[in-house]
Amino acid sequence: MERALAGRELTQHEYRIEINGTTQVWDARYLPLATQPGQPPDQLLMVATDVTEQRAAQEARFEAAIAQREMLVKEVHHRIKNNLQGVAGLLQQIGQRRPEVAGVMSEVIGRCRRSRRSTDCRWAPPGRCA
C-alpha cells in the first residue's frame, strides 16, 4: 500500500488467500488521492473484488484450449501417417507395374516408412521408441 501511495497512478495487485482450505483470489486496485490539489497524495482509495470464480473459469478455458490443441496435434499426426502410407502404397504399385524403376521405388518406399516411424516416435509416450 505504501508503494501505491508513493505513486501517482492506479496500481493493481492480485492476492491469493486460503480460508478454511479453499483459496480465494482477490483483485485489489489502489488509487492515490490528494486532499489538496497540487499536493502529493496522502490518501488511498482501495477497491477489492473477489475474482475467484473468474480465475477458475479462465483456468478451465486454458485447460480446454490445451486439450483441444493436443487433440488437433494427434489428428494431424494421424493424417500424416495415413498420407505417408498412401504414398508408399502408390509407389509400390508403380514399382510393380514398371519393373525398370522398382529398385528406386523400393528405396523411396523405405524412406516413407522410416519417416512414418520417426513421426511415430516423435509423438509417442516417453520410452516407447527407445
UniProtKB/TrEMBL annotation:
Highest taxon, organism lineage: Bacteria
Pfam families tied to this protein: HisKA_2, PAS_4
Domain Signal transduction histidine kinase subgroup 2 dimerisation and phosphoacceptor: 75-107
Molecular functions (GO terms): kinase activity
All copies of domain PAS fold-4, residue ranges: 1-56
Key words, A-Z: Kinase, Transferase
Protein name per Swiss-Prot or TrEMBL: Sensor histidine kinase
